[in-house]
């Protein structure tokens, strides 16, 4: 007799019914391949563990399903019809409004566990989901919210995704900080056509043995009764002990990898037969019959499931398509900061501050006012407060739960902000040098930038990513790079590049109150005004209420009206260190050159620039970056197009030489970069026209 007495008949009936729903859905999709034209995967072979997991979770919990988890979504309470709306990319798709693939959910439904935006990138959900657990731990530590029950976070993964380095970053952080998260690894022994023997030396259970603090268990994920018992034990443990746990569930792959990579492409009949022999629906059916359930009742459940799915499929087929007029909605969440406000230069204040202090003071004011603000990254903790002292004093003032060091894990630092933001926190994080942002680019592009758009506005990521940038003083090839062109090509994020203390403080305040992801590019040579000619980066410190919105450039130097009337003027459009090269260079052309500081690169104050270019007829776009294919060249092209009728000369660009890295030798560095002298010579060329 099968041991089912401890699981209610209601749960067993529900599980069998939803397994039959999942089977019917997969069958109908296969029967209607021409209609189900968008790529999709199904949970066939994984139904037992997915349902068992879903049944344990409560409305205050969080789940990150992966792209094969439609049974998990059924178990959470979503209907076949709702899932099919996404399958067919219909307007009423509750997850993405027709923008993302099948079984790529996002949900804030009050009666279900919450789901952050889910991408297709294998294993990438591990970091954002661990960020959710990190956020819950923070909320519990500071009592920012009362929960009915201790929330549990569940991150679902395929077995081959565990070989991804970013998954290990998530395991490491979860184990080190004792986060309340379950990593559910569904191991069907295949990674598309790659076998387990080709891909890995151990399964997930064996792999995580080295992550001290990570609890673990094995389970037969094809057996619903075993899976239910295991997942109940797992969820109860994490809910009670607030420690991470990995569940390695052995499953089978009965369906295709995806509709586009069909099983017959790479699997022989012997392998398929082995997997079909452990069909979770058949296993549960046999145990129910052994326990005394009538076979006729089970047959009727299966028939009823097929009828329900057929009806839902017909409804979904006939549902309305998304309006093309809505294709550009939800790129960003609405930002409340649209105008400059507060006091930029308080009365009676004469002393100026350096840029680095402006940032420290801004963050301190924000953290004093907002307990949800948290700062972390490499070396930002109390011991040194950042390698440029850009966070000094903050660790001592706010403690190591609000300001803390991380390991060298740029992907985790950046990607965790997704989960932190989702639970209502405001993470301020730092990548130590711009040159080291590349390991985090996957999270920035795949998870952060797309979250608002693909969740149909449910999950904008509210964060601030601080990035020290730029070259001076022989920093060399791995500490001096510029990355703004890369970042400005990422749609869905905002990018600031302040050149002075007042702008820096105002933009940081705006970034905090912006519900969207904001990257602050902070030139290392301007932090302390140590570079000759950058004394003006120091300003009077704005008042605490000062806010400078993104997308507002500033004319730093104006041309004389008389020179403008004579047609003898031009404008330099620049940002960051370029402002100081320009200010020095124009001293030889008094009254003939206007200098615009963009202050933010996305959004960009195009109106200010275009109006200025139309006035002067000549323009130089100046950057520190290597020039070819850069942000500066792209913007110069747009200026040329928008202002063509008003131009007296081609729009010129100037930047660093197109070399793969910045040399460490100071003379070579100077030869590569723009300088005030080089800018002065370029001005002379342009004014000749």
UniProtKB/TrEMBL annotation:
Look up the EC number in the record and give it: 1.2.4.4
Q: Name one Pfam family in it.
A: Transketolase_C
SUPFAM superfamilies assigned to the protein according to its UniProt record, in alphabetical order? Thiamin diphosphate-binding fold (THDP-binding), TK C-terminal domain-like
Keyword set includes Acetylation:
no
| Family annotation (InterPro entries) | DH_E1, THDP-binding, Transketo_C/PFOR_II, Transketolase-like_Pyr-bd, Transketolase_C
Which is an annotated GO molecular function term of this record? branched-chain 2-oxo acid dehydrogenase activity
Q: Which UniProt keywords apply?
A: Oxidoreductase, Thiamine pyrophosphate
What the entry lists under Gene3D superfamilies is as follows: 3.40.50.920, 3.40.50.970
GO BP, sorted A to Z: branched-chain amino acid catabolic process; response to nutrient
Which residue intervals define the domain Transketolase-like pyrimidine-binding in the entry?
Answer: 353-529
Per its UniProt record, the required cofactor names are: thiamine diphosphate
Q: Which PANTHER family match?
A: 2-OXOISOVALERATE DEHYDROGENASE SUBUNIT BETA, MITOCHONDRIAL, 2-OXOISOVALERATE DEHYDROGENASE SUBUNIT BETA-RELATED
Q: What does this protein do?
A: E1 component of the 2-oxoglutarate dehydrogenase (OGDH) complex which catalyzes the decarboxylation of 2-oxoglutarate, the first step in the conversion of 2-oxoglutarate to succinyl-CoA and CO(2).
Put simply, this protein is called 3-methyl-2-oxobutanoate dehydrogenase (2-methylpropanoyl-transferring)
